[in-house]
Amino acid sequence: MTESLTRFELPQSAIPTRWYNIQADLPRPLPVVLHPGTKSPVTSDDLGVLFPQEIINQEVSRERFIEIPEEVREIYKLWRPTPLMRARRLEKAIGTTAKIYYKYEGVSPSGSHKLNTAIPQAFYNKQAGVVGVTTETGAGQWGTALSQACNFFNLECYVFMVKVSFVQKPYRRAIIQSFGANVTASPSDKTEAGRAILAQDPDSTGSLGIAISEAVEMAAKSGGKYKYALGSVLNHVLMHQSIIGQEAMLQLDRAGDSPDIVVGCVGGGSNFAGIAVPYLRDKIVHGRNVRVVAVEPAACPTLTRGVYAYDYGDTAGMAPMVKMHTLGAKFIPPPVHAGGLRYHGVGSVISELYDQKLIEAYSVPQLEVFKSAVTFLRAEGIVPAPEAGHAVAQVIREAIRAKEEGTSPVILFNLCGHGHFDMTAYDAYFRGELTDYAYPQAAIEAALAELPEVNI
Amino acid sequence: MTESLTRFELPQSAIPTRWYNIQADLPRPLPVVLHPGTKSPVTSDDLGVLFPQEIINQEVSRERFIEIPEEVREIYKLWRPTPLMRARRLEKAIGTTAKIYYKYEGVSPSGSHKLNTAIPQAFYNKQAGVVGVTTETGAGQWGTALSQACNFFNLECYVFMVKVSFVQKPYRRAIIQSFGANVTASPSDKTEAGRAILAQDPDSTGSLGIAISEAVEMAAKSGGKYKYALGSVLNHVLMHQSIIGQEAMLQLDRAGDSPDIVVGCVGGGSNFAGIAVPYLRDKIVHGRNVRVVAVEPAACPTLTRGVYAYDYGDTAGMAPMVKMHTLGAKFIPPPVHAGGLRYHGVGSVISELYDQKLIEAYSVPQLEVFKSAVTFLRAEGIVPAPEAGHAVAQVIREAIRAKEEGTSPVILFNLCGHGHFDMTAYDAYFRGELTDYAYPQAAIEAALAELPEVNI
């Protein structure tokens, strides 16, 4: 019977009640976070300008498990548990000897995994008496998720949307607005950071780093009325996503399988961490034999070509400084369509795991991503978001290698979102208008040369 | 425990193995279908130009249950069973005493219920040795579903897309193309029907009736190479959708509830029939006390304002003639955004059920639809397709009445698809640019005056 199943469900009563915090099990503690002005370790008071206390506690906590509030679990029930699928048709299409499973986070109302952290972030902000939250969005997945979460908790929501996305993705803007959020094209004239950029370049199409600067500034100057919310990179964000991997583990148990390879795409690192951390815990604590594989765009190769150093999280240098794998905060990645992966750095947790050789990293060029995504959609029916297409590309590489080597690994990957709002990118791909980008060596070297000096 | 559940799952092993054919239980047989040229009852040979034999058999079958082929069930497993949700947050938002459940068909890869019939139609065509199928699409849900289904069975797929949608919905066109289908804006110069329309009006933006004429002509003139596939209206199409209601019944049993009111939106009638027919069977056969409610746009009030008469299925009079509730094949509905409900007629099964007073029908104006859809999306997180918004609007009417009357009915409705490709319509609604349309009395009267005469 199990043999012919495609989807492995969990009852809602099995939704995990705790997030897993990998900080508890890292071989060494994470490097401290620095204040961008003083370059000294940030205090709780420094962070309190941007985040409510419970979020700050979670950010630095080394507790292994943190209780998911009942109010958050109730909203998770709108779409969780998400399905775990056996990609039988993809296996057949590429003729692999591997078994391929994917956890599908695209069934969430926002269409991606981002809602897993947007809900608790909105909840903790509401609990702290905040009026609203500010944020940035590039591809739009995060803006959609946070606007939904704020709507659920009656919080105001201000989204600075990278201008090129604001113009090119009117559907994304519309869905964010339909949940009641206020969307501003960034750079804007609403903040000093935005006005400074516009003064230099009135035609600036924006970047994630600039939009973060604007959102941080708005919160910081609001006198406590607004706080700031980030959709990836930070420890608490990655921890909230651990619900993905916890569910996947239960579902794979039901399928009677255990992964040899776990794959996720990496921008800031949240969907990757989400699927991977429960397996990494077993690897660190119990010596489990599992390869954990991060995939990034060749045009923004943060792990594979970056350095592990302190850097700013944003362009204007207003966000806290974090030790992370980075290409330099001044690096503007080429305009690949996986907007969610176009960030100069990667979360501290991911960087530390990579530095400790607990995870592997590979980069994939854009055309291979779309080719793989089309193979997937024609086999499985689901259109992957371009970000998720990176994971698909790596999975296909692994599956083809397995066939060549005559092995039969079990591969698990995170299909973190659907591509319904990315059809213009697919359209361009089919018309032959997409390109790969040469490794942007000069731009990265220039950005790395400007890394801030710190005394820590 | 059950009390706090939001989603009611079924294991894949519980996917129904048979479609339910309500023709077996109708109080009287359906009126015969006529050849559009001779106006005599169509023969199997007449229909054989357009459809493979198994489809024709199903179209006229009075067998109560028809086996779902194993190959179809295997693909159903990519997304079925679909979830049944208790809309707890919507209930709270509108303060109703009713219990509201919805069956969510938007989780299908194509984003709507249409894939339920696209898969078997593609399968039977493939089995019959056909090279490809032709079809039309308006809103795009059907074109998406059929292109996916053809891709799964290696069939060519030719979609005539109503020109106004082709232009206004580039994402829809792109997703249809991404599954390998050939998409043509209709009216086109590829068919006589299309060329005749363009000769009269080179700027014609098309209509569903015109696109059907083009698709039917292409199949009819292909010498058997291509057949034609329709996404609604016909008996076999409605029967394939019975899987929705069968699953819902099993899931509601698990929830410990039984519906007093079952609601679906109606264009050709397939999603409505899908959710309703298992309950109608109980109503007809066992005298079950359940209200079954069809909802249509006020701008295209086929059931509430049309007549029950023989009419053409398409503009050029090439498709078979069916006795149905109709506004006249020459009626072009106002451009409401629920493109899937803009059809002059409604399926024979639905018409007969309405004539026998086994179902009720109501019409809802466009602004109420969007207002209700926004209430729903803010409560439940899911953006309804404008078509599904009609069901939501009626459910909210019923739920508010229940509160006023102090009753606590259990309401079940079919949320037949998501609105990810309809965000421009929501955008226009939020900008105050959508309007209601006056009941198009003169146009309907003119179209009804042109109803064909038949001798039957």
From TrEMBL, chains A, B:
<dbReference type="InterPro" id="IPR001926">
    <property type="entry name" value="TrpB-like_PALP"/>
</dbReference>
<dbReference type="InterPro" id="IPR006653">
    <property type="entry name" value="Trp_synth_b_CS"/>
</dbReference>
<feature type="modified residue" description="N6-(pyridoxal phosphate)lysine">
    <location>
        <position position="114"/>
    </location>
</feature>
<dbReference type="InterPro" id="IPR023026">
    <property type="entry name" value="Trp_synth_beta/beta-like"/>
</dbReference>
<comment type="pathway">
    <text>Amino-acid biosynthesis; L-tryptophan biosynthesis; L-tryptophan from chorismate: step 5/5.</text>
</comment>
<comment type="subunit">
    <text>Tetramer of two alpha and two beta chains.</text>
</comment>
<keyword id="KW-0822">Tryptophan biosynthesis</keyword>
<keyword id="KW-0663">Pyridoxal phosphate</keyword>
<dbReference type="InterPro" id="IPR006316">
    <property type="entry name" value="Trp_synth_b-like"/>
</dbReference>
<dbReference type="Pfam" id="PF00291">
    <property type="entry name" value="PALP"/>
</dbReference>
<keyword id="KW-0028">Amino-acid biosynthesis</keyword>
<feature type="domain" description="Tryptophan synthase beta chain-like PALP">
    <location>
        <begin position="78"/>
        <end position="417"/>
    </location>
</feature>
<dbReference type="InterPro" id="IPR036052">
    <property type="entry name" value="TrpB-like_PALP_sf"/>
</dbReference>
<comment type="similarity">
    <text>Belongs to the TrpB family.</text>
</comment>
<keyword id="KW-0057">Aromatic amino acid biosynthesis</keyword>
<protein>
    <recommendedName>
        <fullName>Tryptophan synthase beta chain</fullName>
        <ecNumber>4.2.1.20</ecNumber>
    </recommendedName>
</protein>
<keyword id="KW-0456">Lyase</keyword>
<comment type="function">
    <text>The beta subunit is responsible for the synthesis of L-tryptophan from indole and L-serine.</text>
</comment>
